[in-house]
Amino acid sequence: MDADLRIDRCFAADYSISVAAELPPSGQEVIRFKHGATGVPTSGLDGPLIRIEPKGAPPWLAIFGGGYSGSGVVNAIFTTPSPTVLCIVHKGAGFLVNTRDRTKQDVPVFPVRQVLSLDPLLVFADLVKVAVCGAEGIEWVSKPLVSDKLSITKSHERDILRCRGLDAATQTDMEVALDLRTRRVVRS
Length: 188
Known about the structure:
With about 190 residues, the chain is mainly beta. The protein has two domains: about 5-105, no CATH class; about 145-188. Helix content is about 0%, strand content about 50%. Strands 1-6-7-8-9 form a five-stranded mixed β-sheet, with no helix packed on it. The protein has a four-stranded mixed β-sheet with strand order 2-4-5-3, with no helix packed on it. A four-stranded antiparallel β-sheet has the order 10-11-12-13, with no helix packed on it. A hairpin with a 4-residue loop joins strand 8 and strand 9 (about 105). The model has no long low-confidence stretch (mean pLDDT about 90).
């Protein structure tokens, strides 16, 4: 069950998390989250079992399913800009989970291939676009920046995210700079 899932504590959190080794004895509830599903799946989830302990609230268990079986996708747990929300990315399927009310929001890019912490933001990239998460959740999703193979290459300039990817029209690599403040491409 993914006992070696990386945990990236890039932001302060009002909860603790651990990857559980096995299902609990009968009678203990396990909340099931499936990427892209609005209902509650009852079986068939193959993702990690996570123990979540919110400060001042009872601990609970969650299992995550869905995702992409190919290579080059993220498998990790991240704290987020909101101290009560954690992010699980399993097989490229991203979940933002409120640790207090036990609800989830899907990360709207798939499959997640990169996650980058740029305080006060958490940035997700798939093959063509990025999604930006702030303290209130997903703030915005870019339009496609490249045709394929998007990669965040630099983020050292204030508010500028530099990316690289394939331009299908010319069959060459291209570079794109995205202003995270204005949400616009500033150079390509």
